[in-house]
Structures are given as C-alpha cells and as structure tokens.
Automatic annotation (TrEMBL):
<dbReference type="InterPro" id="IPR036681">
    <property type="entry name" value="PgpA-like_sf"/>
</dbReference>
<feature type="domain" description="DUF7984">
    <location>
        <begin position="1"/>
        <end position="168"/>
    </location>
</feature>
<dbReference type="GO" id="GO:0006629">
    <property type="term" value="P:lipid metabolic process"/>
</dbReference>
<protein>
    <recommendedName>
        <fullName>DUF7984 domain-containing protein</fullName>
    </recommendedName>
</protein>
<dbReference type="Pfam" id="PF25945">
    <property type="entry name" value="DUF7984"/>
</dbReference>
<dbReference type="GO" id="GO:0008962">
    <property type="term" value="F:phosphatidylglycerophosphatase activity"/>
</dbReference>
<dbReference type="InterPro" id="IPR058290">
    <property type="entry name" value="DUF7984"/>
</dbReference>
Length: 173
C-alpha cells in the first residue's frame, strides 16, 4: 500500500461520509456503556461526528495514520475470516486509539472498541466484495471509528469541567 496526501484526502472523505453508519453504532455504544456504568451519556449528531472527523484529519501526523488504518481495514479480508481475527482486531484497536487521542483516552477507546465490535454485524455495515459478503475488516473498521469518536467527543459527565486530580503548581500548598 502507498499512502499519499491524496490517499489521506480520499480516506477523510470516506470516513466523513460514513456518518450514517458510524453514528448509530457510536450512539448504541454510548447507550450500552451508560447502562453499564449507570451514567447519562449525550447522543452524538451526524454533524458533530463530521466536524470531529475534520478535526482529526486536520492534524497531518494523525491523519496519515488514521488513513492508513482505514485503508487497511477496508481492504482486509481473510479466507474463512477467523484466521484473520488477530490482525483486524489489532488494527481496529489502534485506529480507535489514534482517533481518540493520547492517553488516557487512547486506552479507553481501545477498550470501547471491543464493546462496539461485538455488537456490529459485519454484513450489515460492510461494503460488499465481489461475492456479496463483507470483508473481514469491515465490522472492525466501523466499530473502531465509533469507539474512537465516541471517546473523543463530549457527552460524558466525568469529562466535563475540571478534574479534581489536577495540581495547581502555581502556589497551593
């Protein structure tokens, strides 16, 4: 695979246009996590997702890595699917982490990826190959985008406001 600035622009457009698939997965994941952790989590609108896609791709160093992972997962297929389980999971986790940003959000996005992934039906979200079946990486791609963007977007109460763990190095005893 060769990744060029045009490849990054093309993948940006593809990820941005994927809002109608990714946003429902993202919101379903937020609902599931909210129930698990007894938290109210705001839903994400397609326009908010698209703006955040633009923000991710505005950072060239992040954009080239996101584009590379997206392109790999879009094309990844393994005969029989199961033997490729490790590579599509690894790429999905890394894509989610890269989209989410640095630590601790990247680690949270990796964990969230697995929650989203088990609820994504490969054939329902995949672009079809010549045989009409989704590629092995398709469900992981959609789950990764949902996990990464749900992690970085606002809506979780614990992320709103100042952290009680921040240290004021300017004068507190």
């Amino acid at each position: 695979m060769r990744v060029t600035p045009q490849t990054v622009r093309d993948e940006h457009a593809w990820v941005r246009d994927r809002a109608d698939v990714v946003v429902p997965i993202l919101n379903d994941t937020r609902d599931r996590l909210g129930r698990l952790f007894d938290a109210d989590v705001d839903a994400v609108a397609p326009d908010a997702y698209r703006r955040e896609v633009d923000a991710v791709f505005a950072d060239g160093e992040v954009a080239v890595n996101v584009a590379g992972c997206v392109a790999l997962l879009r094309d990844l297929d393994v005969e029989g699917d199961y033997p490729g389980f490790v590579v599509d999971e690894a790429l999905g986790r890394e894509l989610a982490a890269t989209v989410a940003g640095g630590r601790p959000l990247s680690l949270l996005a990796q964990a969230t990826f697995h929650v989203a992934d088990v609820h994504v039906d490969r054939d329902a979200t995949a672009e079809t190959d010549r045989d009409g079946a989704g590629t092995a990486g398709a469900d992981d791609l959609d789950a990764a985008l949902a996990a990464g963007f749900q992690t970085r977007l606002p809506g979780w109460d614990w992320r709103e406001g100042e952290s009680p763990f921040a240290v004021d190095a300017g004068g507190s005893e």
